[in-house]
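Cross-posted from the bioinformatics board.
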Amino acid sequence: MAPPAQSQRSPSPSQPSGKSEVSDLKSQLRQLAGSRAPGVDDSKRDLFKKVISYMTIGIDVSALFGEMVMCSATSDIVLKKMCYLYVGNYAKVNPDLALLTINFLQKDCQDQDPMIRGLALRSLCSLRVANLVEYLVGPLGLGLKDSNSYVRMVAVIGVLKLYHISASTCIDADFPVILKNLMITDSDTQVVANCLSALQEIWSAEASTSEEASREREGLLSKPIVYFLLNKIREFNEWAQCLVLELAAKYVPSDNNDIFDIMNLLEDRLQHANGAVVLATIKVFLHLTLSMTDVHQQVYERIKAPLLTLVSSGSPEQSYAVLSHLHLLVMRAPFIFSSDYKHFYCQYNEPSYVKKLKLEMLTAVANESNTYEIVTELCEYAANVDIPIARESIRAVGKIALQQYDVNAIVDRLLQFLEMEKDYVTAEALVLVKDLLRKYPQWSHDCIAVVGNISSKNVQEPKAKAALIWMLGEYSQDMQDAPYILEGLIESWDEEHSAEVRLHLLTAVMKCFFKRPPETQKALGAALAAGLADFHQDVHDRALFYYRLLQHNVSVAERVVNPPKQAVSVFADTQSSEIKDRIFDEFNSLSVVYQKPSYMFTDKEHRGPFEFSEELGNLSIAGESADNVVSAQRVEANDKDLLLSTSEKEEAKISTGNDSAYSAPMYDASSVLVTASQTLMEPAISNPTLPGQATQAILAIDDLLGLGIPAAPAPPPPPPQLKLHTRAVLDPATFQQKWRQLPVALSQEYSLSPQGIAALTAPQALLRHMQGHSIQCIASGGQSPNFKFFFFAQKAEEPSNYLVECIINSSSAKAQMKIKADDQSTSQAFSDIFQSALSKFGVP
Amino acid sequence: MAGAVSALFLLDIKGRVLVWRDYRGDVSATQAERFFTKLIEKEGDPESQDPVVYDNGVTYMFIQHSNVYLMTASRQNCNAASLLFFLHRVVDVFKHYFEELEEESLRDNFVVVYELLDEMMDFGYPQYTEAKILGEFIKTDAYRMEVAQRPPMAVTNAVSWRSEGIVYKKNEVFLDVVEKVNILVNSNGQIIRSDVVGALKMRTYLSGMPECKLGLNDRVLLEAQGRATKGKAIDLEDIKFHQCVRLARFENDRTISFIPPDGSFDLMTYRLSTQVKPLIWVEAQVERHSRSRVEIMVKARSQFKERSTATNVEIELPVPADASNPNVRTSMGSAAYAPESDALVWKIKSFPGGKEYMLRAEFRIPSITAEDGGPERKAPIRVKFEIPYFTVSGIQVRYLKIIEKSGYQALPWVRYITMAGEYELRLI
């Protein structure tokens, strides 16, 4: 059916101007335009095809606009289609010309042939020219009522297109209401599905400004609608099924029967040939059963087989997408795939993006029972396949070692890596052995014996070199040559490009000096001298610091630089559980692939339905956007996490519920001490033998590091019964959700002081001021005289939130507050804090 | 599907836009082209690049098919898996229309490409992607001299995958049961992993709206009917059906009933994770006689019943990258050195069950080896084969009934075949 290759093949990539061709075409089209000769349509077709080809390869044929429109007066559907294509392409750049086409498109919208009606309507709506909007309403209205489903299907999406060109026109014409009726009554499933897509988009966008729209949006998730669609699901095509399932996953079931009904209804979808449907179904199952622990586990069992099949059959891209999801699930329920680990063995010719994810899976599913097999398999990759994957697999072995209790077998393997005498293997293995020793110092004997045999000349990568040097310093008493190797390295100080390595070198030589002073003294002197002359400020400063310390008192210096170390129990997890929950909420989307919640990679206006909108999204956020606030807090939180190196498991024990790990209010001072000394080698001033001093030191560290000790003035003394968490964290979506759910606990009006009003000329100042009182701003907006702020705060000792909407009118000096609280009983106390904080605003 | 696609691109092997369809007007072709050309240049090996990439607010997802990339661009948080599936479906549809999807066929068919892209997706939401159904919408060249236009049938039809009024002179159904064996054997000769992926592939040439019913030797079904199984029944795991199969009915009484689409489609796929004995076993020994001579001795053994025969057996033996002057002798078949893949390919046309064949090959290698030469990439031995009239799982089609209201007699043809899938032996 494809036409034989025609002569208009793209002339040459060097892009001819095409001018002569275009004028040629122009005259030919003119000739044909008026002709009524038989067979003229065929010659027109050939010409049109030529025009389209030119257009596609980038030759500007917009000069033919008039001729093309003239020729389009035909009943030939193929010609019409090509003409629509042409018009759609050039209308946006030539809005004046586009006006020419409106006439014939409108006429075609009333053609006898439903195919032509549909196509014309689609082209009309796709013109995207704002001043033509008025011409769209009529044909769209007719299209929605058309007797042919193809036309209705096109019209429904047409409404959405209209909305994006001019929202007000679309709303004024009452199209959303018509779509809603159509969704429930139309006999054609694709029309219904398109209605659902369109309504989701329109109402989500409208929800921020109209109460009604947000109600309607919630209405899509109501039981009658969801049940109506689910009952019809078998009639939908596969993509529409995905759409309906996506909706069902957000449905909040009224009771357990509801849940089981839906699951029974959808059980067979897990057998659908299209993986997208299977994944969407899995999402529904997982989300519905979140509250029912037992059933949730059963769901995991049930979805296992379909997921594994999706991984092993189909395209690599499919495996990639599915593996990303598996990884997320395994992080939540490590046991589910622990006996199916063999499915994640890499095939020789799989693309490396799949292999990488499989390695991650293998690391994640490793437990006591399967570690041996998995590590054996990983060692196979280290020796065999391409280098990046080999490196990844060595790292995977290391990760498994760090998460297991029984590491005997793994340590042997790692040491074998060191003996393989391949540079990249040695490099990776060195870094791992270092981490391993930090966690399991008891293995030092076995490891050091092997590490000692490695010639530092064979280690070039900075990370590996740093690791080797760290071990030389840390275990210099066990390695006979340590001082001499270090000395050798110091001699070639100038050739060492990595500052990290030079820093490690300084510290290692210091440590070595305390253990074997006579042998190291010379090297130390050389290192300090080289360090002091170093151009890198950190290296310079550290050298200077050591130098002064040694000058001051050698034994103090030893206590500072080389105290006995405690093993690191768990290395920090870089992602908070809150973020992970967000990602899980967005199961079956890009969030899972990126391992980031969607607000981190989409703009506000492109957020999908139900994600993030309403007031928060649309207030013009003054200064920094809510996202920035959140990500900044997250970064802070991560930093904290790193410092504390507390494991999630431990936190789970301490704080119950699924609140964020970081809102865990009080940090145990002793854990700060311990972990600070573990993670930060240098500032570990703590000395367990001097308890008095130690506490002071902790405070000093805390202040330095900005950990939760309030540096800002604490909340005012009058209402002492309520303490607020100084660094409360709440993401916009949770805020929004809570704001919707909670009733208003208190609604008050408050008069601001004149100083306060004066200071309000810069609303940012208020945000900072309130932050000083442990009340965080999540969004703000408005212009003089009306300002609107959303604040939140958290109790210091429990994860209980206060949400405040505060509208300040600067001309009347009044502030209206609505307070919502998880714990209603304390809302008055919170209100007092809030008012007293507000009253201090602007007061010097 | 959460999130709509902004635009769909078809790009050539260098990442230049061949054709694109702008659905929502928020990603430009130049922006996408600049991003993508940079991406493939930087990577050198585009195969190693993740198929989902984020750049400057836009997510690009792409797949490659012969010398064409298909790519979506989106600013929303789309359903990643679903879109990648969708792209593969687009490939299927193009293949249906142009036989082969490649740069040349796209260039010859710009108009049809635009038409297809318009019908498969509207404003970023997937619509119909069944090639047969799309035929109703696609007018170019298919309906040159159409007199009266029929309204598109499928859309008004209860069965969205089949049009009414199909007529064949001879009513026939071809059913191929294809099983692929995936196996991974480690260097100690242990099977680390094995599974079987099966598919029932159908080609239907049937008039009207035929009702089909398929009976398999499914253990669950047979036991439910109280028949003696006699070890012939099989346990199918994780069955997936084409959308035409009435899933509810299968859930109820394990009957596979359906109105088939016209033409070829995969009726059902299944997976078995039971341990499979390697159907073809290969042992290899490598001897380095001197610094410059390597000898490989290979034994291949068929481990299935004598009445079956494997055909088109291809054993790919990895050899050192710098080997030269091959000297090969085989007891059966022929072997050719394929330096481009650093392998010796041993082909045996026909390999009956219970037989053993040998190969002996000698290579010269440079006596001076580079000290810091890259790491040896050790590839596994890979085997390809087909065994007709045989299935590993023992699946059997007990009947295939076709009932149409006009009462014609249709001929069902059933074939069985087992093939090697990912068949890897890490033996050298």
